[in-house]
Each structure stands twice: as C-alpha cells, then as structure tokens.
Design brief:
With 344 residues, this protein is mainly beta. The protein is 12% helix and 38% strand. It has one domain: Beta-galactosidase, Chain A, domain 5. Strand 2 and strand 3 form a beta hairpin.
Length: 344
C-alpha cells in the first residue's frame, strides 16, 4: 500500500510540474488506509487531554478556535451551540470577523451514514456522542471521538495550523462494526459561512461524464438539497442512496464534475480555499442556506468503500484563508497547497 501511494504521489508531482492533472480513475477505486496521521493509529505521539471544550491556535495572520461538540460561551466565541465540532472561529488580520457562523462551525464532522433511510437512526451522529480535545503541541489539536452509539465508528480529526496560517486537517476512523447496507461508509463535513456576499463555490470542472475542456464553474444551489453535490472527474462509483434518504445534500448531484481537487468561496474580500488529495476521492457539496438565511454551507463528503471492521481509514486536506486578489492567485495557491499535501 505504501509503495502504491508513493508511486501515485510521484506521478502527481510530475504532472503538477507540467501544469497538468491526472484522471481520478487511477486513484479513486479504493479507500485509503490510515497511516499514522493522528493518535488513533500512532500511539507513540504524546498528547494532553484538555478539560476545556475549546483551544485557541494562532500562526501568521490567522487565529482559530477548535472545539469539541460541547457548548462554548466565551468572549471570542459567544453562544456557540453544542453538537458543532471543528473550527468554530477562523479569523485573519485582514478581516476581523469570524468566517463561520459563531453558533456553528467550519470543517465540522457532521454525518455518518450508509445511504439508507432505515439505518439512519441519528441524522447527526457525531453531534450526539462525547468528544475530547487532545493537545499535541501549541499549533496542533485533535478532536477524538470514541465509537459512536449507532455506527460504532471511532474517529480522530487533527487540526494543525501551519506557519503560513494554513489549516491541515487529517482524519482517521476505525469502524468497530460493519453493518453498512450499501457496502460503504458515508461521512460528511460542513462549513457554515457567516453572511458572504456571494454564496457560490468555485472550482475547475466540466459537465458530468464528458470530455469537455476544464473551465471555471461558479456553482450555487437554487435551494437546499438541489444540485448540491459535485463529483470528481473519472469517478466510477455511482452515488447509491435510497430515494427516501433524508440527507438531501448527499445524494442530489449537480450537472458538473470537478477536474482539480479543490474549491473556494469568498467573503469580505477574503478567500476560503479547501484542497484535497486526489487519492481520497472527496466529493464537494453545498447549500445556499445550510447555516440559516444568508449563510451558505460549503461542504465536502468522503466514502469508504468495502470497509473492514477494525481497519483504520483516513484522508488529509488543507484549508487556507487569505485576502482575495484574482483567480490566477487562487489557482496558484491551490496548486501549491496540493503539492504540499501530496509530498507530506
């Protein structure tokens, strides 16, 4: 497995240097096994369990508050609600306000499912079962959750604030039982954006299942659960959900697919960029009202195909928050962050 990943990374780096990107068909056929990205699988890493339900990290021009799923009410994060884990506040010196809706969060682990309505006992299972914060160092914290009550999924998400202010998020999980009716584990992350002027997300893509040349897609859903999901190009695993499946953001595909594994949105002359490894086969998702009227959700989802009980799976992504200049700048930043993800 390690040799295959190294070879895939080398091919990607060569293509990056040539300004090209590969088809996702090479990388999306199997879920990526976890490789010591968090304390869930690397028991040698020392950490300190925090008694508090939040921690503040600062680097460069960026500050963020990472929370577990307990309620928090502090001056920097007033009225934050229970259930919403992840990055509850993200600020940049170029814009003093929180990117995310303060009561909610960003990069927030939200759903566990198998695409069936009958097995969805709890729509928001990560919200409902205890989490703990594990402090690794002054710039790195994990949100750990023991096996949840229904799906028995144990997980750990590591938020590391890099020197340049970029967030690197690594997630690992272990299914402690495997009763997934459609043969996959579906996992979903939400970022609730606080009143952006433009609710759209932007990515390089094309019409689904075509060989069209990549172009800029400015995607916006007309309403919650309509044209909400954008798949990777070359994807060969159809999205299989029940017709009556109640999580409408997951199964309602748009007419587009993305050709490079990143997307962004803008708020207050700032860019929020999310970048993913091709091997992880992430699907983009969005809602114009996920965080309430005027507050869209810029989300993503991940699927573990043919999961094995007791095995660890994981993915890694990066999120950058920086002043907006133009699309050339954004594209260059995205490709730099993608290269760093692959190299690491």
């Amino acid at each position: 497995m390690t040799m295959n990943l190294q070879s895939s990374a080398l091919r990607m780096l060569l293509l990056l240097s040539a300004g090209m990107f590969p088809s996702f068909t090479e990388t999306n056929q199997t879920s990526v096994l976890a490789q010591g990205m968090t304390t869930l699988t690397d028991k040698s890493v020392e950490f300190r369990r925090l008694d508090s339900h939040y921690v503040i990290l600062e680097q460069s021009d960026v500050s963020m508050i990472v929370v577990d799923n307990a309620a928090v009410d502090i001056p920097d994060l007033p009225g934050h609600r229970a259930g919403y884990n992840g990055v509850a506040s993200l600020k940049h010196s170029g814009s003093g306000s929180n990117l995310f809706v303060p009561a909610y969060a960003g990069l927030n682990f939200e759903h566990i499912h198998d695409g069936t309505a009958r097995n969805l006992i709890e729509k928001f299972e990560p919200r409902k079962f205890p989490m703990e914060l594990r402090l690794i160092d002054s710039n790195t914290v994990e949100v750990y959750q023991p096996a949840t009550g229904n799906w028995q999924l144990e997980s750990c998400g590591r938020y590391s604030l890099q020197k340049d202010g970029t967030i690197e998020y690594s997630f690992e999980c272990i299914p402690r039982k495997c009763a997934y009716a459609k043969g996959y584990i579906g996992l979903f992350w939400a970022s609730y954006i606080n009143g952006p002027e433009n609710k759209a997300i932007h990515f390089l893509g094309r019409s689904r299942k075509t060989e069209e040349r990549a172009r800029w897609i400015d995607a916006i859903s007309p309403q919650h659960g309509v044209n909400s999901t954008h798949e990777p190009t070359g994807n060969e695993k159809p999205l299989d959900v029940d017709k009556d499946f109640p999580l409408s953001l997951i199964g309602n595909q748009s007419a587009h697919e993305y050709t490079e594994p990143w997307f962004y949105g803008t708020r207050d002359s700032m860019v929020f960029l999310q970048v993913f490894r091709p091997a992880d086969n992430i699907w983009f998702a969005q809602s114009p009202t996920g965080g309430g009227n005027g507050n869209p959700a810029w989300d993503f989802q991940w699927f573990i195909h043919s999961p094995v009980q007791g095995k660890a799976y994981g993915f890694k992504m990066r999120a950058a928050y920086f002043p907006e200049e133009n699309r050339n700048q954004i594209q260059a930043t995205a490709r730099t962050q993608l290269k760093l993800l692959i190299e690491n």
